[in-house]
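Summary for the funding panel

The consortium committed to producing paired sequence-structure records for every protein in the target list. Below we show the first two records in order, beginning with the earlier of the two.
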Amino acid sequence: MSLERFLSNTVSSWMNEEGPQSDIVLSSRVRLARNLTDFRFSTLYSPEEAGQIVERVKEKMSSFPKELGELEFLPTSEIQPLEKRVLMEKHLISPNLAEDKNVGAVLLSPDEDISIMVNEEDHIRIQCLYPGLQLKQALSRANELDDWFESELDFAFDEKYGYLTTCPTNVGTGLRASVMVHLPGLVLTQQMNRIIPAINQLGLVVRGIYGEGSEALGNIFQISNQTTLGKSEVDIVEDLISVVNQIIAKELTAREALVQTSNIQLEDRVFRSLGVLEHSRIIESKEAAKCLSDVRLGIDLGMIHSLSKNILNELMILTQPGFLQQYSGGPLRPNERDIRRSSLIRERIRLDKDTCEEEES
């Protein structure tokens, strides 16, 4: 296994699997933040201390049990800026770790469903990813990894406040549970502006596709917990699942309403977007994301049969700036990226159509 393997695969293996409610919930993620007792937090530690943390984790990984899986240790010092961007676009590392100049590392599983970041905002961040709505499964997997790390390393923990973290909002469980959801129905029926404040009042937060500070491209939103103190990990996850199930119900109702009241307009929107993706020679990332969202909605509603559902997942990553440049072998100017993006989309759609036709025959 090598860094090249993680960079060359557009879609992580776990993303090709079907999960519960996967027509709306693209993925579930659980992340645990942990810090070592005998080192200062990342806001205060020196480069030397950061290096010592990396070495300590690397040393412990020599005894990592096989039953928990296989992890590749990748120091960030050996990853080029463009390569970091690609890993970030695949949600394998955070924007913070991609941009940070400090000494760090990431541990990745072959299927890319496990990502453990070293010296991100916290010393260790354990992340598990699953397709569809599988937050409980992701939490169970993350807890298994956390138990092993805690048996090998001394984590900063307070009997009253729980796990101590760099940012006070993570103190307690250190848990961030989130789902990535595709909500075109609620956006097109103009309900999202009302739903987001209601979700915030429940102690949850709605963000864009890459988390805090990012934009909701292609009607894809990330919903996660804000509260980490005073509630158990199980309660946090169950509360999030309850809210997500309500959002799923509202999205399905919105889609049904669009079909009943504006079906011809909806079909026109879907097939116009498909036409743009199939025939454009220049396309910007926002337009591509909008068109991909429309096409995915058309697939979910049975309007389009010639493309697979996973095409949204793949092309949303493949068309990002970092992946485009990595795929092309070097830096590209914005206009060159737009040309390359349209070319890749056309190639991928043509390939997917050929595959679907072969399966039907």
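The next record, for a separate protein in the list, is shown here:
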Amino acid sequence: MKVAILGAGAFGTALACALGHAQLWARDVDHAKDMRTTRQNRRRLPGVDLPDTVTVTSDLNEVDAEILLLAMPMQQMRGFLNDNATLLASRILVACSKGFDLDLLIGPVGVIEQVLPGTRAALLTGPSFAADIARGLPTALTLAARDDALAEHLQTRLSTENLRLYRNTDVTGAELGGALKNVIAIAAGMVIGAGMGESARAALMARGYAEMQRLALSLGAEPETLAGLSGFGDLVLTCGSEKSRNFRYGMALGADAAFDATTTVEGAATARAVARLARDRGVDMPISRMVAAVLDGMLTLTEAKGALLARPLTLE
């Protein structure tokens, strides 16, 4: 069964490298042409050669795979699905995005199901850096689908020697884990960028994880999912490495330094969505709320730190 990756960013390219026999679709014609010529994605993943078995196209009509991995920013997904609904409706769609749609306040599988009702949809998420996957380093991810038969089918088809997939039917939990950890990663980056120290980062990660659990459970997720790869595992990775775009973004904010505006930082949009969702559901998420306030210029980092430290003392 053929597989195609729609989106030639770093992660989409890495998946193509890991899967080997696959099509890789790039939105930009010149980008696709350059990849075909150089056999590298010099824009997003330089230094990694595409396998000879990976074909690159910019024409969506040339994509003939049954399984489509949607490796695109969360905020672009709904428009892409609407624009190409007829072409996509009969395929198996596996979202590889982490975040919430800002208008609908739902995750990537929810967006697929809302735009294309009845479509077989799944989510690929968990602790992973594109460079590691592309170079064949051991990586474990979560493959979540509401239908376990579909999850098992995709797990078998997409697992490789070095890419190990664990399946899960708790789509809500997997979506939330992947989205919420990006917000905490921005906060962790702020802590390190501002020179608050490793102890402060550890405390923030622990309390951030508690926030993630509170919101996820309020939305019907299973606690075991948040304790797995798509929750705790992804949180540890993104809060502890400068390979994480969200962490680097937070570091830049904390250090009052410049950040590459062309880099997609999913956690920034997610922070705003989470603040609204938590408020609407009455869930206490002080770290996420402070991140959103700093991003929107409502608070300085110093004010946000003071507000968090001044909260009433309580039981853990």
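Regarding this second record: The two ends are 49 Å apart (CA to CA). The mean pLDDT is 97.
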